Amino acid sequence: MGVLETIYIVCLVCGILYALASLIFGHTGGDWMSHGHFHLPVLQPILLVSGATAFGAAGYLLNRFTSLSDLMVLGLAILIGIGLAVASYFLWVEPMSKAENSTGYAMSQLGGKLGEVSTTIPANGLGEVLVKMVSGTTFHMAATLDGVPIRQGSRVVVVEVRDHVLYVTPFPHDDAKKEEE
């Protein structure tokens, strides 16, 4: 067994072990290369490992089952490894990076949202407002911004958020509807 064949086998076995560890333990250590001051798509662990695994497998198979020279096998194995890594990037990493969305939100994002009063908001106290978000509906403590009580069932607009309390004002179109009734 030559040096190149040993390198091919080591790359192949390490890639298979990494794939098995990722399957069993999940992607817990996969972001270690992306924690830095810069981010290069080439340094994604999945790309490096898939390229090295393909390099090892192609090199081993070409070396074992063809009569190509060692230099030709090395060149083809490198091209196959790079090709698979590039294909992995465009078929897996790039689409998945665009698909990741968070259902979380920050309290500061609630400004301007419409809500419905679920517990009457007194003039100088707290009530509760239901706000519909992408992730579902959420209930938050609310106080009136104008110092005017707001009844349960009224629609409100969140004007600002301070200390985890929504400061709301009645939705203007609801007042017009109530006057018509």
TrEMBL record:
Provide the GO MF annotations for this entry.
peptidase activity
Keywords of this entry: Hydrolase, Membrane, Protease, Transmembrane, Transmembrane helix
Q: Which Gene3D superfamilies does this UniProt record tie to the protein? A: Nucleic acid-binding proteins (2.40.50.140)
Enumerate the InterPro entries for this protein.
NA-bd_OB-fold, NfeD2_TM
GO term, biological process aspect, one:
proteolysis
State the source organism's domain of life: Bacteria
Transmembrane stretches, start-end = 6-26, 38-61, 73-92
Q: Where is the Membrane protein NfeD2 N-terminal transmembrane domain?
A: 4-101
* The protein's name in its UniProt record: Serine protease
